[in-house]
Amino acid sequence: MKGDIQMKVLAINGSPRGKTGNTEILLEQFLKGCNEEGIEIETIYLKDKNIKHCSGCFTCWTKTPGKCIHKDDMEEFLIKISQADIMVYATPLYYFTVTGLMKDFMDRMLPLNKKEIVKIGDSYSHPRRFRELPVKTVLISNCGFPGNYNFSGLVETFKVMARGNLAATILCGQGGILNAISSDDTLTKMYESFFKALRSAGREVVSLGYIKTETQTILDKDVIDPDIYIENANRSWKQR
What we know:
Number of strands: 7
Mean pLDDT: 91
Oligomer: single chain
Structural class: alpha/beta
Strand content: 15-25%
Order of helices and strands: EHEHEHEEEHEHHHH
Largest sheet: 5 strands, parallel
Helix content: 25-40%
Distance between the termini: 49 Å
Radius of gyration: 19 Å
Strand order of the largest sheet: 2-1-3-6-7
Number of helices: 8
């Protein structure tokens, strides 16, 4: 809580599978933790929204400052972004970066910036049209093969975009198994600590502004031995 004003979390699910994807499983647990802190939460599923590609015309900087030429769902979302205290970007890893849905969303955030280039410290950037938004940024991602190094390009993108406000990264390199956990008692038990850490991460980002080291350690650790995961993943592909 910020005084008497309730903090707001705006979560963006960029998976083409929306509520049925592996990304949603991670996001849901994280937001459960946020909810335990009594924070206002809204989730946007991009697959269900009408967001056109950015045309690169810069009309939002010149002729109609802050207003895009496209009249679609992004108009409403720009307002929501400007009011959020914590932005949560949840996306599966597509060719070492975000999905196309998420990229369109990010591109269309351009009206939130001004056209002038300013120097801040040793860096150059465009100042925000409103306040420096959001206060905190969280990245949640998963992919179907082990090794968090696969997320390095994605993480670097968000470090730059968040301008020093990347509060947390939750990266699951064995995401291909997430949808099977709820129907398998053995996997449910194996992932109990991981899901508990996800909920703790949500609480900690809201209350502390970051994820505790002990929580992050659990989130970063492979639940399944990578060799065993790869063996089962390859077997699954052969059966399809």
